[in-house]
Amino acid sequence: MTNADQDATKPIAKKKLKLALQGGGSHGAYAWGVVDALLEDGRIEIEALVGTSAGAMNATVIAAGLIKGGPDEARKMLREFWKQASDAGKHGPLQPTQLDKQCSRGNMEYSPSWTMFDVMSRMFSPYEMNPANVNPLQDIIADLVDFDQLRQGGDTVKLFVAATNVLNGRLRVFEQHEISAKSVMASACLPLLFQAVEIDNEFYWDGGYSGNPPIFPVIYAGGCRDVLIVQLNPVNIAEVPKSSRAILDRVSTLSFNSSLMREMRAIQFVSDLLDIGELDKEKYQRIYIHTIDAETELAEFTVSSKLNPDWDFLTYLHDLGRRKGKSFLIDHFDKIGVESSTNIREKFF
């Protein structure tokens, strides 16, 4: 037997990762592409996931697929989720027109459908515009995911979903044993589009207002030290916003990034204390942070594109995510389990 034959028979050495998936509406298709590449590679074992909004939907489908049938099933279910979401969008209030599609590729600043929604949402609440509180995404998630199986699957992969309590402003992290289609929708409840989601006499809006995504649940879950954050909201932009809508876009992005940046500072603070011997290394674990973003590419799109369900646009973002995921593995696979591939100070301070 040759050395090549011996190498071919060796099992693939896998490394474990915890994934933290940001929310960002249709831009979540970018995270779909990133995870698709990681699962296809065969060397990554996803140990835990935490997600917010679109990130919560991605995380839930990924976890359900891994529990049901492993990486290939997770990839299949992710694609099916996004295809069904796109198909549902064709019949919704924000169904894309040809002009919307041009907007999504950067040829226009704001799409006609989004402009109409923006105007209407300032005049009428979802309790008036959507009194039946119709949300096709809840039906898609409920049909696609076996939640009984998911809640029992913590030994395969751990899952956490984040939402914001409307009445007290606190972050609510739904743990795996209590996750349902309703709690996933609570994490993704845009308050100008849907009525607050009621669970056990508490009311929830999008988790991005309090944690996009929160990192501490996957840290406290134990296991590996490596957390990979898939970012949808750009930390840096090229120029100061000048138009009213561009300013509102940036205000929203800053708000949704603020909790993540605070957690990154806390993680760096602990790392610094470990470096100078102020903390006992036997009691405190160093966390390795990795990030995959598309700051330049996603910064070109305005907030209107986050509500565009056009399949061509979603697959464009998916393909972009796949390229970024593959590049991460080429550049940083050897760092997993050894050190952070992201310089927290440079990126978040």
How would you sum up this structure in a few lines?
This protein is of the alpha/beta class and 349 residues long. It contains 15 helices and eight strands. It is 48% helix and 13% strand.
Question: Your description of this structure?
Answer:
With 349 residues, this protein is α/β, with parallel strands linked by helices. The chain contains 15 helices and eight strands. Strands 1, 2, 3, 4, 5, 6, 7 and 8 form an eight-stranded mixed beta sheet that branches. Helix 2 crosses helix 14, helix 3 crosses helix 4 and helix 4 packs antiparallel against helix 8. The relative contact order is 0.18. About 4% of the residues have low confidence.
Give the end-to-end Cα distance, rounded to a whole number of Å. Answer: 54 Å
Poorly predicted regions are 96-109
Q: What's the overall geometry? A: globular
Query: N-to-C SSE series?
Result: HEHEHHHHHHHEEHEEHEHEHHH
The fraction of residues assigned to DSSP E strands is: 5-15%
Provide the gyration radius in Å: 20 Å
User: What summary fits the major beta sheet?
Assistant: 8 strands, mixed
Instruction: Give the helix tally.
Output: 15
Oligomer: single chain
Helix/strand-derived category reads: alpha/beta
* Overall pLDDT level: 89
**Count of beta strands:** 8
Percentage of residues assigned to helices: 40-55%
Secondary structure layout plus pairing:
Elements (H helix, E strand, L loop, with lengths): L2 H7 L5 E7 L6 H14 L2 E9 L1 H16 L1 H19 L8 H7 L7 H12 L2 H4 L6 H9 L2 H5 L6 E8 L5 E5 L5 H7 L9 E3 L2 E5 L9 H5 L5 E5 L13 H32 L12 E5 L2 H4 L12 H22 L11 H5 L1
Parallel strand pairs: 1-2, 1-7, 2-3, 7-8
Antiparallel strand pairs: 3-4, 3-6, 5-6
Helix pairs in contact: 2-4, 2-14, 3-4, 4-8, 8-10
